[in-house]
Amino acid sequence: MNTRIDKKLLAAAAVLAASGVAATTVPASAADDTPRFLAASELPPHASSAWQAGPVTAGQPDPLPMCVGEALPSISVHRAYRTDLDTGALQVTVVERSEQRAKDFAALLRKKLDGCAETVMKLDPEITAKQKYYGKLNVEEGAHVYGVHTVASWGASDINMFSVGRDGTTVTLVQWGQMGGFADAQVSDFKTTTVTAVNKLY
Predict the structure, then answer these.
(1) What is the rounded distance in angstroms from the CA atom of residue 175 to the CA atom of residue 30?
(2) 129: which residues sit within 8 A by CB, 6+ positions away?
(3) What residues have CB less than 8 Å from 13, skipping those under 6 apart?
(4) How far is CA 58 from CA 52, 74, 91, 178, 186, in A?
(5) Is the dihedral of CA 28, 29, 30, 36 positive or negative?
């Protein structure tokens, strides 16, 4: 395993816009109890470019999102989103066998995000990272929101927002990113998107 963080993972569009081409697309006729994913229109609005949603796809996203990617199991289902202007998003949902397993998995993702900036800098000394915790949202079993800003020695500056939410046995991760810093983070809009994502799980 490469001990340096892949520089492409720090470019929001490259990280978030790709969908797993080797994975299996989930058919539209899936059972009614299948968790629902965000629609393109439910993402933080972009000032000059409409969102486009990829297919709901079985398996881990490729590439994996930074910091939490390696924690995502093979039973993950994901959907990638993009705009035409270097802004991307990703939703990953995992249905566990019990509420306790879901609670533990959500806690693992939160732990990964709590140490995200430190992890990024350990993996690549050319990256400087800072992060913020934006609090817990009162939706179902709760959702937690984080922001991570990365600056590379070659000049790239990216802001990513993450949230982890749970409804019973189901955990969802939402990621949004674009070029810029904390001032460019659409925190209020991203919180609204997160609440929608958790409410849509069932």
Answers:
(1) 24
(2) 116, 117, 118, 120, 121, 148, 149, 150, 151
(3) 82, 86, 87, 88, 177, 178
(4) 19, 8, 12, 25, 28
(5) positive
**Residue 104: what residue type?**
D
Query: What ranges make up the beta strands (E) of the chain?
Result: 24-25, 52-53, 57-58, 77-82, 87-95, 127-137, 143-152, 157-167, 170-179
Please, what is the angle between helix 99-114 and helix 116-123, to 10°? 60
pLDDT by 10-residue block (mean), the chain, 202 residues: 46 37 44 79 92 96 95 97 92 97 98 97 96 98 98 95 97 97 97 98 88
Whole-prediction pTM? 0.86
Q: Give one word for 180, left, alpha or beta, with left for phi > 0 and alpha for psi -120 to 50.
A: left
Domain boundaries, the chain: 7-199
Tokens of 150: 């990365």
The 3-class SS string of 104-117 reads HHHHHHHHHHHCHH
**What's the CATH architecture for 7-199?**
3-Layer(aba) Sandwich (3.40)
Q: How many residues does the chain have?
A: 202
Residue type, 202: Y
Q: Tell the burial category of 106 from Cβ atoms under 10 Å away from its Cβ (0-12, 13-18, 19+).
A: buried
